């Protein structure tokens, strides 16, 4: 790819670079194609046509129709619109929501907000492999359950939940099924309608489009209240002049993903496996999460006895991540890993390698070499 830097970037789950073809598609809309798509003059109509095509490109990737796609500023906003919207519009049926303890903070914090407003939220646990237990879900479902929200692919471990089965069980009690598919879109072929998804969110910057753009899929027939009030844009859900350049970019990114999903997956999985097999040769290492039900681009590895923060700090020119979070000077272990039964020490010793389509074989070899050397020369705490 044609962005020159000397970083081995293995942090694609945090954010991706923009595909140069995506950038090319959006640039004219930052320059000469600047009209407001709501304007009735010819210039505005041209832009509106481009927005329509982008909407179709997004819809096509997930097997939806144009009317079911709402552009947002990203997944966090899409999640807020959906969770708060369902809570408000379906409260007559009930005030019970089911989600999972390993969801992204955008879901967990919004659920917490709803709990403070009289809703009851059940947080399902996960097994050692990161998967939910369908029996636990069955027992948690009630006649007053209005929504089940389970992420498609976990951002830290890459674990893929049994979405179709979850949707089926959810619909048996007449509740809606929502999935945060941010880490799945563009990586797995998804037909939202076919597998029973009612609401889904995706984010541009996790799939080679810019930051600050995303989309919400709301299945036809589901009514949500306005999130921002104004001109009635986006089916009345999210008023405000559309972010035209970024929408064009997201559309192009979806079009590319649809065409190249298979070839990307095959190439990336072989790089990921090479990386993982080599790193697992280091004594006292293991993979976190299911290796069967897992996305092709992620390897979350525990280097037992080490402090991942220290290791990452010493890795010059390698971008990887750990799930620990700094909250007011106290470093907390990854809540995703501890929910899977890892000790705090093992969670602190874990590193997420997340690959993408611009990684090369040379890069992987280099990272293996750097990490292996680093482990040999670093202090082992336990
Ligand atoms: C990145 C991410 C989000 C947040 O998306 P933004 O577009 O950055 O708001 C939500 N869920 C998952 C799983 C993510 O990886």
List keywords for this structure.
11 helices, cysteine desulfurase activity, PyrdxlP-dep_Trfase_small, 2 domains, 37% helix, iron-sulfur, Aspartate Aminotransferase, domain 1, metal ion binding, Aspartate Aminotransferase, domain 2, 2 iron, 2 sulfur cluster binding
Description:
This is cysteine desulfurase. InterPro entries: Aminotrans_V_dom (IPR000192), Aminotrans_V_PyrdxlP_BS (IPR020578), Cysteine_dSase (IPR016454), PyrdxlP-dep_Trfase (IPR015424), PyrdxlP-dep_Trfase_major (IPR015421), PyrdxlP-dep_Trfase_small (IPR015422). There is one protein chain. Helix 1 runs antiparallel to helix 7 and helix 3 packs parallel to helix 4. A seven-stranded mixed sheet has the order 2-8-7-6-5-3-4, sandwiched between helices. It has a three-stranded antiparallel sheet with strand order 9-10-14. A two-stranded parallel sheet has the order 1-11. The two termini are 41 Å apart. By secondary structure, it is α/β, with parallel strands linked by helices. It is globular and about 65 Å long. The protein is 37% helix and 15% strand. The protein has two domains: 131 residues, Aspartate Aminotransferase, domain 1; 238 residues, Aspartate Aminotransferase, domain 2, CATH 3.40.640.10. The protein contains eleven helices and 14 strands.
């Amino acid at each position: 790819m044609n962005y020159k830097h000397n970083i081995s970037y293995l942090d694609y789950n945090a954010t991706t670079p923009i595909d140069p073809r995506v950038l090319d598609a959006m640039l004219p809309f930052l320059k000469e194609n600047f009209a407001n798509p709501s304007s009735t003059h010819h210039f505005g109509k041209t832009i509106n046509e481009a927005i329509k095509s982008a909407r179709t490109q997004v819809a096509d990737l997930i097997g939806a129709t144009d009317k079911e796609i709402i552009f947002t500023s990203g997944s966090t906003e899409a999640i807020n619109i959906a969770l708060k919207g369902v809570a408000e519009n379906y409260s007559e049926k009930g005030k019970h929501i089911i989600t999972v303890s390993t969801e992204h903070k955008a879901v967990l914090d919004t659920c917490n907000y709803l709990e403070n407003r009289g809703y009851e939220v059940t947080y399902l646990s996960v097994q050692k492999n990161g998967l939910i237990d369908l029996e636990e879900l069955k027992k948690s479902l009630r006649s007053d359950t209005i929504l089940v929200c389970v992420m498609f692919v976990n951002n830290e471990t890459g674990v893929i939940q049994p979405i179709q089965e979850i949707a089926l069980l959810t619909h048996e009690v007449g509740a809606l099924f929502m999935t945060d598919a941010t880490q799945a879109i563009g990586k797995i072929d998804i037909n939202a309608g076919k597998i029973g998804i009612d609401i889904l969110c995706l984010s541009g910057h996790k799939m080679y489009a810019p930051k600050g753009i995303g989309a919400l899929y709301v299945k036809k027939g589901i009514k949500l209240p306005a999130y921002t009030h104004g001109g009635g844009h986006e089916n009345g859900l999210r008023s405000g002049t559309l972010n035209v350049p970024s929408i064009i970019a997201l559309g192009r990114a979806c079009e590319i993903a649809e065409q190249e999903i298979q070839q990307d997956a095959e190439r990336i999985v072989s790089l990921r496996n090479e990386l993982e097999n080599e790193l697992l040769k280091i004594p006292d290492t293991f993979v976190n999460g299911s290796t069967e039900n897992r996305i092709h681009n992620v390897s979350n590895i525990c280097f037992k006895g080490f402090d991942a923060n220290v290791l990452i700090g010493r890795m010059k020119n390698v971008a990887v991540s750990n799930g620990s979070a700094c909250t007011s000077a106290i470093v907390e272990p990854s809540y995703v890993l501890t929910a899977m039964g890892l000790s705090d020490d093992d969670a602190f010793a874990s590193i997420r390698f997340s690959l993408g389509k611009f990684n090369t074989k040379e890069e992987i070899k280099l990272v293996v070499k750097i990490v292996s050397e680093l482990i040999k020369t670093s202090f082992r705490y336990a």
